[in-house]
Design goal:
With 287 residues, the chain is of the alpha+beta class. It folds into 2 domains: 65 residues; 210 residues, Distorted Sandwich (Glucose Permease (Domain IIA)), CATH 2.70.70. Helices cover 30% and strands 23% of the residues. The strands form 2 sheets. Strands 1, 4, 5, 6, 7, 8, 9, 10, 11 and 12 form a 10-stranded antiparallel β-sheet that branches. The longest helix is centred in the N-terminal third of the chain and has 42 residues. The protein is rod-shaped. This is M23 family peptidase. Keywords: Membrane, Transmembrane, Transmembrane helix. GO terms for molecular function: metalloendopeptidase activity. It holds the Pfam family Peptidase_M23.
Length: 287
């Protein structure tokens, strides 16, 4: 019983002290300030937590988008692709290289109207010697899509850095001037040309830098920016015996393509003058 009395006395003293404290003027203002501080602190903590969560969700969304979105290749990232189906087509006459051996240079010469001209591209044929689909080696804009009485149908695509690809000796075309063509898209079908009927069905393919031809085989799997300017010597060699010297009798326009002397492989169509020696002096005199 004594313990209960002591406990009651203690409680009464505490209540009495609180009553005295509450009677003081500064008590209630201080109490209000404490309560307001607690409420304000709670609001700030809640807002900070919500902002952190929102930022975390946003970061997670951006991360997931970056992870899920595939890289879209543009024309600047592209590299030249073979302009026909691989495995069933091959080079049947090479590009004329002034630095090549005499035998390789002769294989790249074209006999047209009793004159020899240099092949400014490569001629591609199918293993079965039949027509095949021709595709864009690189994304570009069609700047020319015409039919020439000497070269057959021809298409020119413009790329960046002054680079063009040319497709000639086509039997038909599927594009028009001004059209944007994606890499690998069908341009037409390989055919024949009056310039070189003996070659049969083939594609004459060129890569040009500022209208100067370069060897297409050197730039497969490389970008347009990799096509460097041709040396002065190569330009001079090209200008000394250009395909433009071969005139189309039915047209005033000079075809850029060199005619095909014959297939470079031993089991292909033979050159009418195959086996004969052709030196540069005879070429200059004939041209």
């Amino acid at each position: 019983m004594t313990g209960n009395k002591d406990q009651k006395k203690t409680q009464e003293k505490e209540l009495s002290g609180l009553r005295k404290l509450a009677k003081r003027r500064w008590f209630y203002p201080a109490l209000y300030l404490c309560a307001a501080s607690l409420v304000l602190t709670g609001v700030l903590l809640f807002q900070m937590h919500g902002a952190d969560k929102a930022n975390q969700d946003q970061d997670q969304t951006v991360f997931n988008q970056d992870k899920a979105t595939p890289h879209v290749q543009n024309a600047g990232d592209e590299v030249f692709e073979w302009p026909a189906k691989k495995g069933v087509t091959e080079v049947i006459q090479p590009f004329y290289d002034p630095k090549a051996t005499e035998a390789d240079q002769q294989a790249a010469l074209v006999n047209y109207n009793n004159s020899y001209v240099q092949n400014t591209g490569i001629n591609i044929g199918a293993d079965d010697e039949k027509a095949f689909t021709v595709t864009a080696a690189m994304t570009g804009t069609v700047t020319e899509a015409t039919k020439d009485s000497t070269l057959g149908y021809k298409v020119t695509l413009k790329h960046k850095n002054g680079v063009e690809t040319m497709y000639q000796s086509l039997g038909s075309i599927d594009v028009a001037k001004g059209q944007e063509v994606a890499q690998g898209e069908k341009i037409g079908t390989a055919g024949n040309e009056a310039l070189n009927k003996a070659m049969g069905v083939h594609l004459h393919f060129e890569i040009r830098k500022n209208d100067v031809p370069v060897n297409p085989e050197h730039f497969m799997d490389k970008s347009a920016s990799d096509v460097k300017a041709v040396t002065v010597g190569a330009k001079a060699a090209n200008e000394s015996n250009p395909a433009s010297e071969v005139k189309d009798e039915g047209s005033s326009e000079a075809p850029k393509q060199e005619s095909d002397q014959g297939k470079s492989k031993s089991n292909t169509k033979s050159n009418p003058k195959e086996g004969s020696s052709i030196d540069n002096s005879s070429l200059d005199s004939e041209n």
